Structure formats: C-alpha cells, structure tokens
Amino acid sequence: MADINQLLPQIKTLGESTFDMYTGYINTDTIIEETTQYLSKLQIYEEPLYKQWITVNNGFRLFDISDETNMTLRYLPQQQYIHLHPSRYAKNTIRIKANAMKTAVALHVMNLNPTATQMVNEARQFIELSPIKTNSDISEIIKCYELLV
After folding, report:
1. Hey, how many other C-beta atoms are within 10 angstroms of the C-beta on 26?
2. Phi first, then psi: what are they for 22, rounded to 5°?
C-alpha cells in the first residue's frame, strides 16, 4: 500500500465539494500548448503581467480551447502560477462530487472492487471519509471509477 500512502495528500487536494472534469478528446499536452499560445498571443505569459491580468478581472479569466470547451484561468502564488481548469458546466465536462472521485482514486490505487460496499468503505476509511451504508450509495463512486479505468 505504499503507493496509496504517497498519494493520500494529493487525493485530499480534490476538495470537499464538486468540480468539473474534462471529458473531451484533447490531451493534456495539447491543452497546455493551446493555453500557452493564447497567453503568448496576448503577451501576458510572464508572471507579473499574468497576475495583473487575472487580478483586474475578479481573479479569473475564461477562454475556449479548440474543441470549444470553456476553461478558467486563475493565478496561484507558486512556481507554476498559471492555474487552469474546466469552467463550471462547460461543454465536454461532467460535474463530479469530490468525495466520490477521492474514493474512486483510492479504490483504483488499492486495486479494490468499486461495487462491494466493504471494499469501498475500506478505501474511504484510508482516505479519512465516513463509510457508506449500502450498495445503492455507491453509484457516483462507480461512475468516477469507470472514468479512471
């Protein structure tokens, strides 16, 4: 279980609420390249200019990637200061409950069956989430798990 121990802090970064997950056909490298081209075209790729551009617009900017999925740009005061994620309810996205995705990731890494309540609860205990009571409570977890595999 060493892999899950290393992933635990990262699994927790998925948040406490919901998020939009990109399901389109464009791969991550292409999305990064399109974002870089967009920012370079606007001549705001350098951190001070990017930070100002984001800050004067309530902390975010929107743009579409080539498959017409709307993306949100934010500023993070870190080495990788450009934060990019799909916009809420954008084309080619699905809305995911964070705890369902955390559970699905843990199940996948731990190689556990997502349809067995006991195994789901084993994964949830490890990632410090409360147990579910019945198999009927795991439909969203299964949906997330299927996205991963």
Report:
1. 15
2. -70, 130
The encoded tokens of residue 91 equal 């084309």
Specify whether 16 is located in the same domain as 74: no
Number of domains in the chain: 2
Do 57 and 108 belong to one domain? Answer: no
Its pTM stands at 0.79
Tens of pLDDT, residue by residue over 94-133, are 999 999 999 999 999 899 989 889 999 999 999 999 999 8
> What is the extent of the structural domain holding 109?
2-20+95-148
